[in-house]
Prior knowledge:
By secondary structure, the chain is of the alpha/beta class. Helix content is 22%, strand content 31%. Helix 6 (311-328) packs parallel to helix 7 (362-380) and helix 9 (445-453) runs parallel beside helix 10.
Amino acid sequence: MDQKTFQTGTQIYELRGSLSGWHISFREEIRTENLYVIHFELNAETETAPPELKVAFRHPQRDIQVRWTPECPATHHLFQYWWNGGQIRSSLCCNAPVFSYFNLEGENRLTYAVSDASGTVLVHTGPTEQSYIINEIVLYRDAAPPVRQIKFSLLTDRRPIHYSESLRGVSDWYAENPAYLPAPVPEAARRPFYSTWYQFQRDVSASLVEKEFEAAVSCNLKAVILDDGWNYSGKTEPGTFAHAGDWAAAPEKFSDMPAHIRKAHALGMRYLLWFPVPFTGSLAKHDYSRFQGKFLNADSTVCGILDPRFPEVREYLVSLYEKFVGEWDLDGLKLDFIDSFSFTGDDPALKDNYAGRDIHSLPEAVETLLAEIIARLKRLKPEILIEFRQKYIGPAIRRYGNIFRAGDCAMDLLENRVRTLDLRLLSGNTAVHSDMLIWSPEDTPEIAALQILNVIFSTPQISCTLTELPAEHLRMLAFWMDFCIRHSKTLQESPLYPEHPELSYPLVTAKGDEEAVTAVYKTGEVVPVLPNLRHIILNAKHTGELLIDAEAPGTFRIFNVFGEPAGETAFPCGLSRVPVPPSGFAVCGE
């Protein structure tokens, strides 16, 4: 392995790999003090397959106690370099090549990002006993066609700013690249959704869903996602997807799907439909036999994973979604399991020398597929809603989806909080949705509301059987969904400051030009009252008080879990306690 060393100031970068035959240049772009972009360029005389490359650099382990990555599930504690937990893989369909290190007060020490968010990148990082953070970035691990030029960049941010500001800068840096221009986000993507998944699972039908429509509308839910189970009757083993394919509405469940969707539209609700993009199951007799020899997985006896390197596979999928959106007047699609486009064993294309495939690279084929889907669906519906789920949530795939949903974590409000906030930190203006919310009808409205308050900085998706909820739950739900809509600009689009990721974000503030919203998730957290703004402080915990720190005296108006007035409280300058009902809130600055 060859090695070439570059230096900028006190920072040394090493480039390692089979570098023979490549002319290598290195350029430092200084954007501001302690914010750099390092540009690497490799040129060859003749077309040559890109070699696997490794960029390595060290950073002093000085006042660093916390790390942040987009990995899900997240661990924001430090991992030593020699632990496997310090290795993160990213690609178009998995995570993003971004790392951030900071101290316990959230002050950035080192944030870095790799320009290639489409190809496979492996980052191996962590502290060592020699008091350094070692960072090794491996690129071009996948086979790629010969080229004469390789270009990539590394952004490094050492500014002593809040880590969230540094991550926003990373998101903006990616969006500067025309190849990563994010998809526009329709306003409908930021309005609360109703999902059929957790309450009905695969035992779903038009009659069940239509019973929920009026309750959903009265609770200010603005869209419906029909999840798995709509296309077949009977049972199947969980997770097998043996019924995927031969796509048609199950007549026993949805005898007239267009009429069913029209009922939702008549009530002002948008309608989205679920598809597991890569899968064709063995019980889908026509599609399963049609695509034999065009699967990625070696064992496809139950369910095959389609190989999008075949042009007919891509055309089949694009035409399928185009057909349903056009014929059923769908407003969007939930395109699921995109991260399952992968090999289970050797690449099956090797044994027949890529016969029938017009693209050799699997990541390139997936990207081509997604580009074709979004282009053709936008011709039918310019404001089409496309939902992707963690982990396919990086800066490159923002071109093709305008909704990123937190990965499945039913009932786990702590995990839902962490996942939505992690998504918000790197997703720019892409709409971030919670995993679907479900709670016990036997809980008090205050306890049920905690599910909502823990994802308040995202678009909530509700997955309860609304017609079986107590009236007080429905009243609570209607208020908080209306709150999400009225304050969406602050909650979803303003700069976000989540504190202490290592503690699952116990205090979070979204700060706009005229309004700020803070959520307190842990007893004992002190909230600085923000001057010159309308400041709403949510008591997202069991105890009936907030601790505040004010620069000047003032007055809070207090509200309960239903948004009803619960009195006023004056507060002095400095530290004080403010009585606020559990799952209620306080407002000052009006």
